[in-house]
Amino acid sequence: MAKPIPKIGSRKNGRIGSRKHARKIPKGVIHVQASFNNTIVTVTDVRGQVISWSSAGTCGFKGTRRGTPFAAQIAAGNAIRMVADQGMQRAEVMIKGPGLGRDAALRAIRRSGIVLNCIRDVTPMPHNGCRSPKKRRV
Length: 138
What we know:
This protein is an alpha/beta fold. About 20% of the residues lie in helices and about 25% in strands. Helix 2 links the parallel strand 4 (about 90-95) and strand 5 (about 115-120).
């Protein structure tokens, strides 16, 4: 029986987007997701493809220290350092969540030297959505 011909763009063939030189990305979007337990910073291009990301957990913070503003500051700095080398000059910032790392991450992004076009809060707010569970009877 003959072997099937592998598809050209399949994941088994190795990396799909492998390049010899780093892409030049002049403009991007920085997403900051700040929960009470962790802060995740993701940098994407304008189309939404992830360029780099970092979180307080991957920076070496464990347990309750992941939710601190200092951990968010370090995570934002790590995520932006990689894209600054690729030539990003302008960015939009989308902040989501109620965590303590919101302001600290934004401060770290401001200090990095990237010009911010806009800062947008995209925290989901319920408009009286789901019905609450019925009262517990003991």
